[in-house]
Amino acid sequence: MPTLILGSGLDILQAGRPPRAQFVNYPLGFEAGRFQDKGNQYEVVASALQGFETMQTPQIETLPFEWQAGWEMLHAREQGKHDQRSERDTTPRYQTAEDRRAAEQQ
């Protein structure tokens, strides 16, 4: 079965050496297109899928999309301006007590 990766982490794609990959230079987490932009999402995914027809050898192709506002949003998030998430730590979190018990039994 042919496979194709659509990714936005070029160094990650290069390290993984997939048989076919399409790189889109968008921030991580936005591989399939700009946030709330269905037209762009469709264009990105449709362009990526063309790799099944055009890529005959293992390679990583770069898709011709740019999203400067996405990088600016990411920078603002890193500065704490738009990030409402909790601080990250190594404390395990479970949705239910049953999940906790199952994990602790291993």
Q: Main sheet, how many strands, which sense, barrel? A: 3 strands, parallel
Counting structural domains, the number is 1
SSE class: alpha/beta
How are helices and strands ordered from N to C? EHEHHEHH
As a whole number of angstroms, the C-alpha radius of gyration is 18 Å
What overall form do the CA principal axes indicate?
extended
Describe the strand arrangement of the main beta sheet, using strand numbers.
Answer: 1-2-3
Strand content: 5-15%
Mean pLDDT, nearest integer?
87
Number of DSSP E strands: 3
- Give the termini distance in whole angstroms: 35 Å
Low-confidence stretches: none
Q: How many helical stretches?
A: 5
User: Helix coverage percent of residues?
Assistant: 25-40%
Outline of this structure?
By secondary structure, this protein is of the alpha/beta class. 40% of the residues lie in helices and 10% in strands. It has one domain (5-85).
Fold and architecture overview:
With 106 residues, this protein is α/β, with parallel strands linked by helices. It has one domain (5-85). It has five helices and three strands, in the order E-H-E-H-H-E-H-H. It has helices at 10-16, 38-49, 51-54, 68-78, 97-104, and strands spanning 5-7, 20-23, 59-62. The protein has a three-stranded parallel beta sheet, with helices on one face. The two termini are 35 Å apart.
